[in-house]
């Protein structure tokens, strides 16, 4: 017989996640996977393995089963924290990047696996309801803000040729940002899968089986990638602000989601999944934004690492308290 502690649902859900992350960390430290191979490893996971998982799940989900109100509670928490960050730092590139860092969860690399272990396919379907709008709304909004701020900064400068920078029309910026968000591997498979589910045809077995196998490979490899990334990350001299950002992301956001969910009359599994998703660490997209716009790169790199380690505690806490949601 196993000790009672090891049979606790939180432990049985978190231990596989921790084990796979540690496996990636050790593989990176030992040089079993070269640091230079991380980019290709990431492309395999996000471009090859993730779309089949998202499409297959959403192809079996009907629009009427999507969890709109819990998603609104989550998005509401993002807006509140984002606005607070801009209020403190000002409407500038740093404010937008750090606002995104304090609100954007690693709901794909860690969230899909964790929610699957803890709450099964029903929980993943709720999470995918969030993913279907999570990236489109927040990444598009952040792109528009950052591009507008970049153009505003360029107004008083000239290009290397001595000519003024060409100004893009706001509508063109909006369309380009929306297109980029829709083409994300976290977005288009969900939308295509939802559209296919409305046909009522079902996925033929000869197609469904390879999609299932590819999707099953996603979660363990994504968690190994998290550990691999941590193994090559330098924490640098930004620990104190990184801790502050991580506390906002990992602990304050779940509280906001819970409060907004209660205001919207939500309880049960849908709200539980959203609260747990809010307790996840910062997503990799925040790092990519900081690199693209060359803003707070060292701080964001440190924050993503600190937030990932801190998630061991924030996720354990929220999952332990989750059964109380129905009783409040």
Question: Would you give an account of this structure?
Answer:
The chain has 328 residues and is mostly helical. The protein has helices at residues 9-29, 38-58, 68-89, 93-101, 107-154, 170-182, 188-197, 205-231, 239-263, 268-278, 284-292, 297-321. Helix 3 (68-89) packs parallel to helix 10 and helix 5 packs antiparallel against helix 6. The radius of gyration is 20 Å and the shape is globular.
Q: Residue-averaged pLDDT, rounded? A: 80
CATH architecture descriptor name: Up-down Bundle
Residues in helix, %: over 70%
**Largest sheet entry:** none
Which term fits the overall shape?
globular
Strand-pairing-aware structural class: mainly alpha
What is the number of E strands? 0
Task: Show unreliable segments.
Answer: 158-162
Strand content: under 5%
CATH topology: Na+/H+ antiporter like fold
Give the N-terminus to C-terminus distance in angstroms: 34 Å
Note the total helix count: 12
């Amino acid at each position: 017989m196993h000790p009672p502690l090891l049979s606790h649902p939180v432990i049985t859900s978190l231990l596989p996640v921790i084990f796979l992350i540690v496996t990636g960390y050790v593989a990176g430290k030992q040089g079993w996977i070269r640091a230079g191979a991380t980019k290709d490893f990431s492309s395999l996971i996000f471009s090859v393995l993730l779309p089949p998982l998202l499409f297959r799940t959403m192809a079996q989900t009907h629009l009427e089963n999507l969890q709109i109100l819990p998603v609104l509670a989550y998005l509401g928490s993002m807006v509140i924290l984002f606005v607070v960050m801009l209020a403190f730092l000002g409407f500038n590139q740093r404010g937008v990047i750090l606002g995104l860092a304090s609100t954007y969860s690693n709901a794909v690399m860690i969230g899909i696996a964790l929610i699957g272990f803890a709450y099964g396919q029903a929980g993943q379907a709720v999470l995918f309801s969030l993913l279907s709008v999570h990236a489109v709304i927040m990444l598009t909004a952040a792109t528009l803000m950052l591009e507008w701020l970049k153009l505003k900064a360029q107004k008083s400068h000239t290009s290397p040729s001595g000519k003024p920078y060409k100004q893009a029309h706001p509508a063109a910026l909006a369309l380009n940002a929306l297109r980029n968000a829709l083409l994300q591997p976290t977005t288009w498979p969900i939308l295509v899968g939802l559209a296919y589910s409305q046909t009522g045809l079902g996925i033929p077995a000869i197609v469904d089986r390879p999609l299932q196998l590819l999707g099953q490979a996603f979660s363990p490899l994504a968690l190994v990638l998290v550990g691999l990334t941590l193994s090559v990350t330098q924490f640098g001299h930004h620990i104190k602000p990184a801790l502050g950002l991580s506390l906002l992301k990992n602990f304050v956001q779940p509280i906001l989601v819970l409060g907004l969910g209660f205001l919207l009359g939500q309880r049960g599994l849908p709200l539980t999944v959203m609260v747990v998703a809010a307790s996840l660490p910062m997503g990799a997209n925040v790092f990519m934004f900081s690199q693209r716009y060359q803003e707070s790169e060292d701080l964001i790199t440190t924050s993503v690492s600190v937030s990932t380690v801190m998630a061991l505690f924030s996720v354990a806490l929220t999952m332990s308290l989750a059964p109380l949601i129905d009783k409040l």
